[in-house]
Design a protein that fits this description.
Elements: E1 3-9, H1 11-14, E2 15-16, E3 19-20, H2 22-35, E4 39-45, H3 48-53, H4 63-86, E5 91-97, H5 105-120, E6 123-129, H6 143-154, E7 158-163, E8 168-169, E9 181-182, E10 184-185, H7 208-220, E11 224-229, H8 234-241, E12 249-251
Parallel strand pairs: 1-4, 1-7, 4-6, 5-6, 7-11, 10-12
Antiparallel strand pairs: 2-3, 8-9, 11-12
């Protein structure tokens, strides 16, 4: 029986200079298609706002504009994914969720049943937050938290976050060239969860803090998270397919053995 994994990719990976980074999107789909032969893959994709901006340049700092950009961009993004997955004879589906789903046992159960049927039929669910109907800064406000909750409630074995850094460093690698990557983390210092998040992409709502919060949530529920580069997918491929942890950070509860 295949294990289920959740793979999340951020806007910083999918967009560049106000456009969708098509080559990176294609490489990502190639990886997901390969993973699908070994795992049940649930894909959490940001990028709707960035895709919408290619059609209409609205000020994304205004919340209503951001919602409009997401509504414009979501079908465009899905069209791209559909075309790319077709090359591998794979179907993908769109699932838009709100944070409130995870607090409503009835709706949550319907969602889980639908996603499980998709997986049983070799369909890749592509999940994003429903930005148009979400409230309070789009509720989660970043797909890292959404992906973490999904991983727990679907009972996936692992969350993989593909981002603009190779893993978790002891300092900001974009500023400090001597920053050291930490390959294994078993516990997160609470003060690291309170820091103000930073984001390198003008379209991203996440940052390293949101990823640490996702990891902290999963660690508290004895789940694993792997953080690695979405620009060079070799490291994700090494870990997920070759079982070789070359580069990236694995957040995992420390074994007593």
């Amino acid at each position: 029986m295949k294990q289920t994994i959740v793979v999340k990719v951020g806007s910083a990976v999918l967009s560049e200079n106000g456009k969708i980074a098509l080559e990176r999107l294609q490489s990502l789909v190639t990886l997901l298609a390969t993973l699908q032969t070994q795992y049940n893959v649930i894909f959490v994709s940001s990028g709707a706002v960035a895709a919408g901006y290619t059609l209409k340049q609205l000020d994304k700092n205004i919340i209503e504009n951001k919602q409009v950009l997401a509504a414009l961009g979501q079908p465009l993004l899905m069209k791209m994914y559909k075309q790319e997955f077709k090359e591998y004879n794979l179907l993908c589906s769109q699932v838009l969720l709100e944070a409130t789903v995870f607090n409503d046992s009835v709706r949550l159960n319907y969602m889980k049943n639908a996603v499980n049927v998709m997986l049983q039929n070799n369909i890749i669910p592509i999940i994003n937050e429903n930005d148009v109907t979400a409230i309070d800064e789009l509720v989660f406000g970043d797909n890292d938290q959404l992906a973490a909750h999904l991983t727990y409630h679907i009972d996936a074995s692992l969350l993989v976050i593909l981002t603009d850094i190779d893993g978790y460093y002891d300092d900001n690698p974009h500023i400090n060239p001597d920053a050291t990557l930490i390959k294994h983390i078993h516990k997160i210092d609470p003060k690291d969860l309170e820091a103000q998040h930073s984001s390198n992409s003008q379209f991203a709502t996440g940052g390293i803090v949101t990823k640490l919060k996702a990891a902290d949530f999963l660690l508290k529920h004895n789940k694993k998270m792997f953080l690695t580069s979405g620009f060079n997918l070799k490291y994700a491929r090494d870990y997920l397919i070759e079982d070789n942890h070359t580069l990236g950070t694995l957040f995992e509860v420390k074994s007593n053995g």
